[in-house]
Specification:
The complex is a heterodimer of chains A (581) and B (194). With 581 residues, chain A is of the alpha/beta class. In chain A, 36% of the residues lie in helices and 18% in strands. With 194 residues, chain B is of the alpha/beta class. Chain B has a single domain, classed as Pyruvate-ferredoxin Oxidoreductase, domain 3. Classes of the chains: A alpha/beta (581), B alpha/beta (194). Strand 8 of chain A pairs antiparallel with strand 2 of chain B.
């Protein structure tokens, strides 16, 4: 049977067909849908872990028990999981272990465009790179075979275009793979230095065998056509290059690490000029040049940003750059924004009003940095809001700067890596304020459950982590829970706690407006009474997409269809010009 | 045949992904190789959304380059302008009359562009304008606006016979919303091209 699947759906299908029993992940664009689709197969235990490190460690546990396990994450998630990655590179995989990294060239939803092919080289583990959904499914299955045959974890690298593109996939049946069972084996599974020294030798031997595999691997293949031009490429770049130069000769690499050296040498002998077409880092290029083979790569193909057929064609000189149509009316930019009724809005309004420094974090609420709220100073990585605040507080104090800092972090990010930071704060006597924006869901990635929601990925009931008790239990004395739709309370609480000369935590709680339960609720919408509106634009400053300002009439307007009745505009209006419909 | 390239563009929440899923599905049912690509994530929060669909005997890239699209379907007026460079000079531009104010416009920092449809018409001869929002409201559910537009689009894709579209709607949509969507599709299909 054929179906149109996204790369992410295809990986889930591949894992199912490969007889996987265990799947774990922390959500992260563009990888999230893999586990969401995995959870549809009831034969597999699928779970959201609290972060990528715990997700990988959990999967390693399942592999210790002799079952096939898969773990998925976005590219920066592998940084969080890098510690267990390097260990399991030595330990190997009793039950097949596949680690999926979904990289984000072009940074559609990410803070950097790191190229995770470098992790395969650094951790000395094999890596497969599919170029469409069929390969995404097939390679997932092959990855499990390689993993068990060579006793190694295998990294499957996707990119945004592979994850989120749909193409035709031939479906297969689930293979029944027996669970091998757990046996104590400390020389392999307990990496004391004495054990690890022996394991490192094995890793190098394994690497030699994997190189041989790469030369014979049927998905590393040569297509000879015109031998004047040869193109070496992998992943989605293969599709772009095929479209750019359909008549050139191709070496398509699917097992990107270790590289098929003999195959590359053979190709180099038979073509006159070699172009390496790859996104981001010159990974293939550097390795091939190190073999003493002359290739053209990043002199032509940009290192920054996502590739597409147009860029590849222009870079290779197939076409001239396109001259845009001379339109006189330009398309207005449409930046993303916090939604109407977003429970975070009032907190950012309060931060801005109180002129506080806000160290930020990763989630929908990072949008609080944009105008008109302008209420975030920094964003580094998951959990950094809290820890950045510790160091910055010290630096400000030393410089005699009296400004106050608040750290702003979402509930899911707090579970992911905020708790350890908060303990750091307590232990090291920091005096800042942590605002936990608790919207009771992992929102940015599309509403995934987390330890605070009371539900698991498989839809079962789960105990809820009580953030208030957790924070008090750690030793924070000043803890306040506020409803973010009460603007006066939010402004007052943020002011009082940020001025307090002691560590404090504000739990700003209200569920995301897009949650099905919230959407069902009845509410009163608001409208502008134009006879009273003075055009002061206070309501516009909350950044609600439902509110617009008519420059000609000098009046505010509320879009009836978009308004969800949060009443923040009603609360900021000093002229009673906003009323219930 | 040459591969057929179609772009559907609009704003998060307008039902673009469902429309492009249905189109890709219909193309697959008609026996073509199909690829479609879009990016989700940040863009869900009121940003613009674009879906590229390519079908034919053999498709390599899921992405469409400048001056390559045969048809662009814009769910919102500004989005037709934003994507105009992807359309072939003799391509078809279908514009839904809906206007959704970008935040900088709503906040009074920028103006909504003056007459995007008129501007597009200066460059693209085959520009068709549809008020799908009105039709969807007449049918009793504004959400089916996307399928009204898809119905209109389908007439401009001669390579996929009507029966494949019907099959696709039947197979891909939940039963309880099939009826209204089927009506919406046919309303769009039977609209006059203007």
């Amino acid at each position: 049977m054929k179906e149109l699947l996204s790369g992410n759906e295809a990986v889930a299908r591949g894992a199912f067909e490969a007889g996987v029993y265990f799947a774990s992940a922390y959500p992260g664009t563009p990888s999230t849908e893999i586990l969401e689709n995995m959870a549809k197969y009831r034969e597999v235990h699928s779970q959201w872990s609290v972060n990528e490190k715990t997700a990988l460690e959990t999967a390693i546990g399942a592999s210790f028990g002799g079952m096939r396990a898969i773990v998925t994450m976005k590219h920066v998630g592998l940084n969080v999981a890098a510690d267990p990655l390097f260990s399991v590179g030595y330990i190997g995989a009793k039950g097949g272990l596949v680690i999926v990294t979904a990289d984000d060239p072009g940074m559609h939803s990410s803070q950097n465009e790191q190229d995770n092919r470098n992790y395969a080289r650094a951790a000395k583990v094999p890596m497969l790179e599919p170029s469409d959904s069929q390969e995404a499914k097939d390679f997932t299955k092959i990855a499990f075979t390689i993993s068990e045959e060579f006793d190694t974890p295998v990294i499957l690298r996707l990119t945004t275009r592979i994850s989120h593109s749909k193409s035709v996939v031939q479906l297969g049946d689930r293979e029944i793979v027996p669970i091998k069972g757990y046996e104590k084996d400390i020389k392999k599974n307990l990496i004391l230095p004495a054990h690890a020294r022996l394991l490192h030798k094995k890793v190098e031997e394994r690497f030699g065998k994997l190189k041989e595999l790469s030369n014979d691997f049927k998905y590393n293949f040569i297509e000879y056509k015109d031998k004047k031009v040869g193109i070496i490429t992998s992943g989605i770049s293969y599709q772009y290059a095929k479209e750019a130069m359909p008549d050139a000769s191709f070496l398509k690499i699917s097992l990107t690490w270790p590289l098929p050296e003999e195959l590359i040498r053979e190709f180099a002998k038979n073509v006159q000029v070699i172009y390496v077409v790859e996104e981001n880092d010159p990974f293939l290029e550097t390795e091939i040049k190190a073999m003493g083979i002359d290739v053209v790569g990043k002199e032509l193909i940009p290192e920054v940003g996502e590739l597409n057929p147009y860029i590849v064609k222009v870079s290779l000189g197939v076409i001239k750059p396109y001259t845009p149509k001379q339109v006189e009316v330009k398309a207005t930019p449409r930046p993303p924004a916090l939604c109407p009724g977003c429970p975070h809005t009032s907190v950012f309004y309060a931060i801005n009003k109180n002129k506080l420094i806000a160290t930020g974090d990763i989630g929908c609420y990072t949008l609080g940095a944009l105008p008109p709220l302008n209420a975030m100073d920094t964003c580094v990585d998951m959990g950094a809001s809290i820890t950045n605040a510790i160091g910055l507080e010290y630096a400000l104090k030393k410089a005699g700067d009296n400004r106050k800092i608040v750290a702003v972090i979402g509930d899911s990010t707090f579970y992911h890596s905020g708790i350890t930071g908060l303990i750091d704060m307590i232990y090291n006597g920091a005096k800042g304020t942590v605002i936990i924006l608790d919207n009771s869901i992992t929102a940015m990635t599309g509403h995934q459950d987390n330890p605070g929601t009371g539900k698991t990925l498989m839809g079962d009931e789960a105990p809820k982590v009580d953030i208030e008790n957790l924070v008090r239990g750690l030793g924070v004395k000043n803890v306040r829970v506020i409803d973010t739709y009460n603007l006066e309370e939010v402004i007052k609480t943020v002011k009082e706690e940020s001025e307090r000369d002691e560590l404090s935590v504000i739990i700003a709680r209200r569920p995301c407006m897009l949650l099905p339960d919230m959407k069902k609720k009845k509410f009163d919408k608001y409208e502008v009474d134009e006879t009273k509106c003075t055009g002061c634009q206070m309501c516009v400053k909350i950044g609600c997409p439902a509110i617009s300002f008519d420059k000609n009439k000098k009046k505010a307007n509320i879009n009836y269809d978009l308004c969800v009745g949060c009443s923040l505009c009603f609360q900021v209006c000093k002229f009673n010009a906003i009323k219930k419909v | 045949m040459e591969n057929k390239r179609i772009i559907i563009a609009g704003v998060g929440g307008q039902g673009i992904l469902l429309a492009s899923d249905l189109l890709s599905d219909a193309a697959m049912r008609a026996g073509f190789d199909v690829k479609k690509s879009e990016v989700h994530g940040m863009s869900q929060r009121g940003g613009d959304v674009v879906s590229h669909i390519v079908f034919g005997e053999k498709v390599y890239s899921p992405l469409i380059s400048y001056n390559e699209a045969d048809v662009i379907l814009a769910f919102e007026q500004i989005e037709s302008l934003r994507n105009i460079d992807f359309l072939k000079d003799d391509g078809v531009m279908i514009i839904n009359t809906t206007k959704i104010l970008p935040l900088p416009v709503a906040a009074g920092l920028m103006d909504y562009p003056e007459d995007p449809i008129g501007e597009v018409k200066k460059f693209i001869k085959k520009t068709y304008v549809v008020d799908a929002e009105k039709i969807a409201k007449e049918l009793g559910n504004i959400k089916v606006m996307n399928v009204v537009l898809l119905g209109f689009l389908s007439k401009n894709i001669k390579e996929i016979e009507k029966k494949y579209w019907d099959e696709s709607l039947k197979e891909r949509l939940p039963e309880k919303v099939f009826e209204i969507n089927f009506k919406a599709f046919n309303r769009g299909y039977n609209l006059e091209e203007k």
